[in-house]
Design a protein that fits this description.
alpha+beta; Immunoglobulin-like; 2 domains; two-stranded antiparallel ribbon; disordered C terminus
Length: 147
């Protein structure tokens, strides 16, 4: 998909975002893992996920691609690289949010509703209008048995 994280800001600036998991660990882009901010010799450059201006110098609209991570709710912080094209621990956070991630894309109310409808359809016996007679082979959906 891509462009899941976006922000409006002054044109021609350096914006990036960082991702934190539920335990407050930050995503290390190169190592593809989570760690305490500054672990070892890590710094903002190791955590920065670049945001690009959609129409450079004109749009004031930046977007960035959320990394492929496991299903979880993540915190995101957009930071302004005020010192120029390099990323620094002192860069200012200018926005924050959360990403409900399903492992491949953002879980929006629509995708959540679709999954709930799949569960209802798969667990409702055909005699009651269900689509699979109450059984499913999808491991994400639980199996329903009539008593």
């Amino acid at each position: 998909m891509g462009a899941e994280v976006w922000h409006n800001f002054l044109s021609s600036e350096v914006l990036y975002f960082v991702v934190f998991d539920k335990d407050g660990l930050v995503y290390h882009v190169v190592n593809d893992s989570f760690e305490v901010w500054g672990a070892g010799i890590s710094a903002a450059t190791d955590y920065a996920i670049v945001m690009t201006e959609t129409d450079p110098g004109q749009s004031n609209f930046y977007e960035g691609d959320f990394p492929i991570l496991e299903l979880e709710t993540y915190k995101t912080i957009v930071r302004w690289g005020s010192a120029g094209p390099t990323y620094a621990n002192a860069d200012l956070p200018i926005a924050q949010g959360q990403m409900n991630w399903n492992g491949e894309q953002e879980s929006t109310p629509t995708t959540i509703e679709e999954k709930l409808n799949e569960i209802i359809d798969a667990t409702t016996p055909a005699s009651e209008g269900g689509g699979t007679g109450g059984f499913t082979s999808d491991p994400e959906l639980y199996e329903y048995r009539e008593r």
